[in-house]
Structure formats: C-alpha cells, structure tokens
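Recap from last week: sequence in, structure out.
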Amino acid sequence: MAEAARRIDMIDTAPAFTAADVAALNTRYDGVATDVMLRELVTGELAGRIALVSSFGAESAVLLHLVSEIDRSVPLVFTNTQKMFGETLAYRDALSEQLGFTDLRVYRPDPAALATKDGTGLRWSYDPDGCCEIRKVEPLARALAPFDAWISGRKGFQAKTRTALPRFELDETDGYGRLKINPLASWTKPELDAYFVEHKLPPHPLVEQGYLSIGCQPCTSKVRPGEDPRAGRWRGWDKIECGIHVSELPGEEPAF
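Predicted structure tokens:
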C-alpha cells in the first residue's frame, strides 16, 4: 500500500480581523447596550482571544467594573512606564483586587532599550514621542502579541480628536489585524459619574486634586476650568496621544 501523502504544515499569516469585519461589528452592535455587547463578545467569539487594557486612570473603574461583572479571568494588562504616579500604582492594586481580577499582567519598558535610549530618564523632557514609544507603545505591543482583540477605555467626549470614535476599530500598529474595542466610545461624563455612584466605585485619588486625565507623572498636569479633560496631558507640546491610539479626525495625521 502506498504511503499516505504527508500533510504539509502551514502557518496562518492572515490577519485576525479585516476592515470589513470591523464595519460589520459596528453595524451589528449599533444601539446595543454596552454590557450586553461586552458579554456576547467576551464569553462568545472572543473568549480566550481578548485582553482588557487599562491605565487605571481617572475613569478606568467603569470599564473595569463592566468587564468584572462578566469574566474576572480576562487578562488585565497594565503598562508600567516607570514614570507613573505612585497614586496610580496603589489605585491599580486596590481596584483590581476589589473587582476580583485574577490575571493582572504588568509590562515594563525593556531595560536594554532604556539604557541605550533613555539612560538619564529625561527623554520625556525633550522627546516625549520617543519616550512614549520606549515606555508604553513597545511594552503594550509585547503584551498584546498573544491576543486577537483588546478592550480600550477611550471615550469620545475627552478631546476633539475622539469625537467620531467608533465602538470597533482595526488596530494595525504592529502590522497585525487586531480588533480594538471602545465600549465607552459614546458615554458622556455624566453617565460615567452616575455609574461610579451607582456601583460605589472608588475614584482615582488624584481626581479631586484636578487631574482629569492621568498618565505619566512628568507629562501630566491639572486641568484648568473650561479646558477639555485631556488638556493636562503633554501641556506645552504639540502632542495629544501617546502613540497607542491614532487621531480620529478624517485626514489628520496619526498622533504618536
């Protein structure tokens, strides 16, 4: 009997999601309640393929609570840039413990990259884009490598570049078609505040001091009356995003 032909091993290099997939999801979940949408995805087609990314910032508790009510074993990713407020690190530990997450994953900058590209630790003061790339963008890329999708906490009201923020986006920052989900894209500030009250969620300790959007300590300042919530980020620089997210305004260049 002739020996059966050996099956050739093939490596699937196709993207996990395409632009058409993303468009279909935006249509499919248009008008669907946030908690219903998250439950269907996290426990259904994206089970085991998705991570929740959080900065543990001013309003992060809302999204964290929503996901914790569905599945507390979802990997929770935090990038510690090693320039964070001590209050943020303490808040991360207390809140993730309170909500019962069982898989908190902390990623830090590569020590070799820091040694060669930011040996003084002052790159933020003359090249904030480069600093973000080393300390946040690259670590997050490593964190998300095992996943086909991730959940972001961005909200449309936070800045003019986010007003057209969709629920679903195609994330191709590392050349891979990964799905990015923005469950709170259409939520307003009053809705977030009401959720905090309803579920008795602890606020970030820096909020009452006037920090309405909280990132790394050197590049975060208090927000003045009348400013948008992200005005305190990279004040004085022509910079509005860390590089993980890109601009949402049509025709505008990505904000790295």
